[in-house]
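=== RUN LOG ===
request id: a7f3
mode: sequence -> structure
chains: 1
length: 403
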Amino acid sequence: MHPTVVPQQHYFPNYTPFVYGMSMPFMPITNGMAVPQPMVFPAPTIDPNMAFPMPIQIIPMECVGPQLFSPPVISNSKVQFNASESAPSNFSSESCGSASLLPPVDTADRSRSPSYEREEAFDASALVLGNEGDFSNTSSECDSEQQRGHKQMLITSVREELGQLLERHFPYKKNGSIMSVYGRQYIADLDELKDVLRGKDVGNIRAKSVRSLKALVGFLQAILNCRQVNVFRVDVILQRKKSGHLKGLLVNIQFSSQQEFLFVRDHIYNAQGFQEALPKFMPAIFAQDRSWKGRAPRDLRVAQVSGDIRVQGPLPRDLADLGLEPQCRVKSISVIYKTGSKKAKTFELNKDQFLRVLTDGVFTVKGTERKLNDKTRLTVSFEEDWKTDFWRAPASSFPVAYQ
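=== RESULT ===
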């Protein structure tokens, strides 16, 4: 009687099983190929100290059905079985008799996963306790990719919801490449660089985290449904990273007055708890940047006032063209410099270096003093901080005419 080969579940996904004959322990029988002589296969002895996978059972189907063990526990490179499991009681050498030549197994109709065929890619050491770091790294990379994909879809979904909400409140809409404008007046031509809302009556919302993105639609809906507030225009701007991935959404809201803007801050943003999910809600008054290459600005007069570096009048023409006023504060300074054939680097100067670099053209990087030259570019950010004092003041300091 020829036994039937019953392959049990693979303990290792990419591992080709071997059948070891008891009389020829070092000559494996692979894939059910015939051996050169008849062999007897007694009942396998379960040794907890075995350092190799358990042999495949060769069972005559007339005697018993398929008997499979649960996958073993890998510990210290040895195979251990559960204490409650043992070899099948009805599986013995007598039941098998004298096994003749094993018939070849036809695998033509079996489908094999490509991963099973690449045995060289399998690393058995990864299954040993203590080497699970490889799997954790792979898992963390997959989780990171899934989180990125989820955020990309969330940004797109929130943008669509905002569009549907704003289309119900405004009769006109204008789409640009990254900005969509919703308003009460028709916009013939849209310049996405110049036609950006700014001012004391404009609120700016930045939503980049998952939490802030989920709260953005609800906040806009609460503002638009408030009868004490008149919204003239809303801009929705899509932000992207240099890699092309979506970064978040910027929303600018133009109110009819600064008082309505403060009303939203006190009675909707703070009172309804949106400040926790949307921490970046502020007036759309931002710093203005100006750059000089190879030198410090010659016609820029600055002085240190109460710990800040402020611009003194009269202002240079290029700063006046930006709409800046005297006493604007130097908010930040960065220097792009290149040494030799190395790639250009950007260095943010500390506040204590502002006055020296603006007056003498000298700055210090990692303990090395450098001078501005034709390979450097100096960029200064100017801020009119007094224009946002109203936003930092308590609510009681500004009367609100809406009850």
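=== NOTES ===
The chain has a mean pLDDT of 75.
The CA atoms of residues 162 and 217 lie 6 Å apart.
=== END ===
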